[in-house]
């Protein structure tokens, strides 16, 4: 396995293991701070939008032409729209709903409580499977970004890692409620993130290491389309729901400013020999 694949694998592990942080939100706090999660999603959305439009799509259009760059970009949008249609992003329940479930379980008999917990546990398993399938294309995106250079791969991994924290919450919350086991909740949330490095390993064997520059730029334009769709379809609505529209919009622009600054300082700090 060459160094390029190892770098991509390491970056995808950061994104994959961030679902574990989401699980920690649940097991360390009985009522997770959903406003904070919403602000994180807004911040991550700003990172994603900046990467998608100001970096990946922009570079694709400059390198292979406006028309080809747009075609690759919208191919990525359509691809992920189809993925989202068949594997929708699981919804994160409000903490008030979980409290309501606990209350109704306490008021019913033990049999009803067991039945209800089995149903909730099953929903957690389905959520974990859905998130695993959903994370697979994100691993592909990190791999292709790493082929372009360290900067692109690092930025994609950071944005995806922030996006994956609420996904860990979405898995851990029902599992913890159903089993009352912190370990089970943490374990399933962590396993759901493993699809990301798995995506890197599989794509590494599908794509040759010496892709032509035009194909690589086109594929990165498609990654920009994937990231743009993911941001507008999933991350922004969640940020608005949990942080409120005004706070979420501020977080988005803060994320964009942060990404612009990180691009600038990475350009200055990385050695000239390292491809950006």
TrEMBL record:
Cellular localization per UniProt: Membrane
Keyword Metal-binding: no
Keyword Transmembrane helix applies: yes
Membrane topology of the entry: Multi-pass membrane protein
Transmembrane residue ranges: 6-27, 39-57, 69-87, 120-136, 156-176, 188-207, 219-236, 248-266
Pfam families: Zip
Keywords of this entry: Membrane, Transmembrane, Transmembrane helix
Signal peptide feature range: none
PANTHER family xref list: ZINC-REGULATED TRANSPORTER 3, ZINC/IRON TRANSPORTER
Protein name (database record): Zinc transporter ZTP29
Upper taxonomic lineage: Eukaryota, Viridiplantae, Streptophyta, Embryophyta, Tracheophyta
